[in-house]
């Protein structure tokens, strides 16, 4: 009897020791670990890593790029003198291949063995407060492969922190990886996902380049330069650069420069595609994941993908395109049905990359608003939806922006998609952090109707690091004046002066001069 008792005692004691040990593995701090799934360029891509010839292929140091591109300068001088485009093309294409050629993947979509990339693992158990884990990847590779790595990464985070769930903020290409993750693993252990400026349905710059629709528009180029200015963060410098851009444009400098570039495009476009873009960038599943559906099959043809030698690569591209991007709505709604809060944030009213025919699409500068928002109906940049335009769906709820640039009713998740006017691609300030903290803190799915301070359409205020509600539009001078009143910065002051000057000049040349 005594023996049995001592055995029982021993077992009880053993449990008494083990139970706190188990409990210590679980963390009850109440702060779910947050993971940032980073944008393109988050992971270094190296050539000959660990040898004396080691070189960063992406993102390369500016000095390395300049060194490689140095021969282009005398070749350009010669081109101006001789108009010999072919000779210039030889030098230019040679330099680009030297800089980026090794990035190309083989017919199976695998990297050259000499090219390796940075691997990411969580390195600390600290997860409270502002701490966010960082997941990066090699932008060239198949997002589905990154999704598998991300799965392992999230398991490590859970193990390390003693939490069963995580919350995610995905930025730009990170959203592509996250969407592939949802397709592969679902979201049972993910509380919240914020998609920030993600090309969930692609971006026109990739679709059009992969269809050869390459062109440069002067007005788009000037707007592109000016749109990026608030991101500089130094108000006075931004204002000066804005004034400089306007002055150079008035003086015809941009037009003259583009005249020279036009000659290059006419004479060298085919060679640049055949000798650089197709053999290098056409082999990268990461870039293909940015191609919107309407450009996809024609792009595969234009980029000359060869089923005989590239079947493995094509299978990867098709899986992402048809099983992930094309199923975005099903995947996002499915995640919500599984209890995961989904938030989509898209920028608008920024000039998109001025290299492609779609330069009139409103965007965050990189990703078109209609693709980042999963389906918004958008007026072309700088204009409004037609006066007789009627909201496409859900007529009992107002989904049209006060400036009449966006109809959100056509979005896949209109009630949880926010639009930030004048937000440059993945460029955030403290105001974003505060907003995201509010979203992360909520156990319930919040909608655009739940928080008066965060309505569906918000004007980005980079000076005061906050958002203000988007205002209705009237005349350009009045708009510039109102903007100056709401966000009194030097840049907005210069914009107001420029708008007034432009209006006066227009009036003189259109009304007074013809009459005289
Ligand atoms: Zn904890």
What report would you give on this structure?
The chain has 516 residues and is α/β, with parallel strands linked by helices. It has 3 domains: 29-41 and 118-473, no CATH class; 45-117, no CATH class; 475-516. 46% of the residues lie in helices and 11% in strands. The protein contains 18 helices and 13 strands. The strands form 3 sheets. Strands 5-1-6-7-8-11-12-13 form an 8-stranded mixed sheet, with helices on both faces. It has a 3-stranded antiparallel sheet with strand order 3-2-4, with no helix packed on it. β2 (45-47) and β3 form a beta hairpin. α4 crosses α10 and α17 (476-486) packs antiparallel against α18. The longest helix is centred in the last third of the chain and has 26 residues, at 490-515. The protein is globular. The site of zinc ion has 6 residues, from loops.
Helix content: 40-55%
> Order of strands across the biggest sheet?
5-1-6-7-8-11-12-13
Number of helices: 18
Q: Which structural class do the helices and strands define?
A: alpha/beta
How much strand content do the residues show?
5-15%
Please tell me the total number of domains.
Answer: 3
Sheet with most strands: 8 strands, mixed
Shape: globular
Low-confidence stretches: 17-24
Q: How many β-strands, per DSSP?
A: 13
- Amino-to-carboxy terminus distance: 121 Å
What Rg do the Cα atoms give? Answer: 26 Å
| Distinct small molecules bound, one entry per kind | zinc ion
Mean pLDDT: 91
């Amino acid at each position: 009897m005594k023996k049995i008792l001592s055995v029982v005692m021993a077992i009880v004691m053993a449990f008494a020791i083990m139970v706190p040990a188990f409990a210590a593995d679980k963390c009850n701090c109440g702060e779910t670990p947050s993971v940032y799934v980073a944008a393109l360029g988050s992971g270094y891509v190296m050539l000959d890593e660990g040898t004396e010839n080691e070189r960063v292929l992406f993102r390369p140091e500016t000095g390395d790029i300049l060194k490689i591109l140095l021969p282009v300068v005398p070749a350009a001088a010669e081109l101006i003198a001789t108009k010999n485009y072919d000779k210039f093309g030889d030098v230019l294409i040679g330099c680009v291949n030297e800089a980026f050629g090794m990035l190309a993947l083989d017919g199976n979509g695998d990297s050259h063995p000499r090219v390796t990339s940075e691997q990411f693992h969580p390195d600390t158990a600290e997860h409270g407060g502002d701490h966010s884990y960082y997941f990066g990847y090699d932008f060239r590779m198949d997002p589905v492969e990154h999704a598998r790595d991300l799965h392992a990464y999230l398991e490590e985070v859970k193990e390390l922190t003693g939490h069963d769930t995580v919350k995610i903020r995905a930025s730009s290409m990170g959203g592509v990886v996250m969407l592939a993750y949802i397709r592969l693993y679902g979201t049972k252990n993910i509380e919240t996902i914020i998609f920030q400026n993600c090309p969930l349905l692609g971006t026109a710059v990739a679709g059009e380049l992969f269809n050869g629709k390459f062109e440069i528009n002067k007005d788009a180029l000037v707007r592109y330069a000016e749109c990026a200015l608030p991101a500089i963060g130094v108000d006075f410098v931004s204002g000066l650069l804005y004034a400089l851009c306007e002055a150079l444009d008035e003086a015809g400098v941009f037009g003259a420069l583009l005249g020279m570039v036009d000659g290059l495009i006419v004479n060298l476009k085919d060679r640049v595609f055949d000798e650089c873009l197709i053999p290098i960038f056409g082999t990268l599943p990461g870039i293909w994941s940015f191609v919107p559906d309407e450009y996809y099959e024609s792009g595969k043809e234009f980029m000359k993908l060869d089923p005989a030698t590239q079947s493995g690569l094509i299978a990867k591209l098709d899986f992402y395109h048809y099983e992930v991007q094309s199923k975005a709505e099903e995947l996002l709604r499915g995640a919500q049905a599984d209890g995961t809060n989904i938030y989509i944030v898209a920028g608008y009213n920024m000039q998109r990359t001025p290299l492609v025919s779609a330069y009139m699409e409103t965007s965050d500068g990189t990703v078109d608003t209609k693709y980042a928002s999963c389906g918004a109906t958008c007026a072309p940049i700088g204009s409004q939806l037609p006066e007789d335009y009627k909201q496409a769906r859900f007529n009992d709820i107002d989904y049209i922006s006060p400036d009449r640039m966006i109809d959100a009713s056509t979005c896949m998740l209109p009630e949880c998609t926010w639009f930030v006017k004048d937000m440059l691609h993945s460029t955030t300030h403290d105001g974003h952090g505060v907003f995201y903290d509010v979203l992360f803190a909520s156990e319930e799915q919040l909608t655009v109707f739940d928080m008066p301070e965060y309505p569906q359409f918000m004007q980005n205020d980079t000076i005061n690091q906050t958002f203000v509600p988007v205002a209705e539009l009237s005349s350009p001078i009045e708009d510039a004046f109102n903007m100056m009143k709401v966000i009194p910065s030097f840049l907005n002051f210069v914009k107001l002066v420029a708008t007034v000057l432009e209006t006066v000049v227009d009036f003189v040349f259109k009304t007074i001069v013809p009459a005289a």
